[in-house]
Each structure stands twice: as C-alpha cells, then as structure tokens.
Amino acid sequence: MTGRSPSLGPAFLRGIPAAKQKTLMELSHEVTFASGHRIFHEGGKADRFWVLRSGRVALDLHVPGRRAADVELLESEDLLGWSWLFAPYVWHLGARALTEVHADEFDAEAVRALCAGDSELGQAVAMAVAAVIGHRLVAARTRLLDLFAPYGSGERG
User: Fold this and answer.
1) DSSP secondary structure code for residue 157 in this structure
2) Looking at the DSSP assignment, which residues form a beta bridge with residue 60?
3) How far is the CA of 149 from the CAs of 20, 71, 115, 142, 154, in angstroms?
4) Structural domains in the chain, sorted by start
5) Of 88, 83, 87, nearest in space to 39 by CA
6) Which of 74, 83, 91, 97 would bridge 78 by S-S if both were Cys, CB 3.0 to 4.6 A apart?
7) Percentage, residues of the chain above pLDDT 90
8) What are the residue boundaries of the Cyclic nucleotide-binding domain, all occurrences included (predicted)?
9) DSSP 8-state class, residue 42
10) What is the pairing mode between strands 79-80 and 94-97?
11) Gyration radius of the chain's alpha carbons
C-alpha cells in the first residue's frame, strides 16, 4: 500500500476508528477508469464498490428511448456504489467516468464477510452507507424539484 492514504475518504467513513479503516483498506486495490468508461450498469450485479481518490463520476438513470439521465455527480472521497450492501446486490443506477478516475476498489463479498465478523466495523460501515443513501435521496429530491416543480411552488410560511 505504498503511497496510499491510511484512511478512507472522510465523506464516507468519518466515524470508523483508524485501526478499523486500515483493516478495511487492506481489502482494497487501486484502479483507474478512463474518461467516458461505463463503470457499471443499472440492473447489473453489485459485487464491488469504490472510494474515489480523484476524478468525477456521473450516476445516471436509464430512460427508455433516451440517453441516460444524470442524477448526481460524485468527486474525490465520495463513495461510489451502495447496492453491494443490500440483497439482491443489484445496481439501482448506472455510473460512468466523466474524467479520468482514480479510486480504491473493494470486493463487496469480502467486505460483507469482514463486517459480519466484526460487529463494530459492520455497524460503522452500515451507518456510513446509510448516511450516503440519505444524502443521495435529498439530492435526488432537490434535482427532481429543480426539474419538475413550477417556479415558486410549495407552501409559504
């Protein structure tokens, strides 16, 4: 792990003790995706996840008869992929690299096994992933309101 950070991005695993982060990092390896590379497809098998080191990734949603619609932009230190944690382990969105991307890639099955054997780590990972999902739900809601809500809609105080 020469030249690698000893801890994961603070946006993802802020609450995990450093020793546990180190254990988790031992399950990772560095990967690079070229700009334009399709990292995963909506509906595909979610058997890995990434913590972005650099670059930008668009999360997108399949729209029949049209180009996939971008729903969120991820950047350095963001978690790419959460569907790996929940059965049936299928991607709910797609992802493509907008720029060259450098990331730490994790094997989902190995991380789930590690978490099953270490309840403190398992709870911390589950809470971290839940926080990411919550943030993404709020972002998706905001994007939908930007796209579809009439100007000035909503209740007034």
Assistant:
1) -
2) 70, 94
3) 44, 16, 41, 10, 9
4) 15-146 (2.60.120.10)
5) 83
6) 74
7) 56
8) 12-81
9) T
10) unpaired
11) 17
Contact in structure between 96 and 72 (CB atoms under 8 Å)? no
Helix (H) or strand (E) holding 73: strand 69-74
Strands, sheet with 57-61, edge to edge from the N-terminal-most edge strand: 38-40, 94-97, 57-61, 69-74
Query: Could you give the 3-state DSSP secondary structure of residue 51?
Result: strand
Write down the residue that tokens 């398992």 correspond to.
Answer: 122
Give the pTM.
0.84
Residue 10's pLDDT band (cuts 50, 70, 90): low
d(CA 92, CA 64): 15
Residue found under tokens 């990772």: 28
Reported as a single tens digit per residue, the pLDDT across 76-122 is 999 999 999 999 999 999 999 999 999 999 999 999 999 999 999 99
Q: Is 118 helix (H, G, I), strand (E, B) or coil?
A: coil
Residue 154 pLDDT exceeds 80: no
Contacts by 134-138 with C-beta closer than 8 Å and gap 24+? 136/59, 136/72
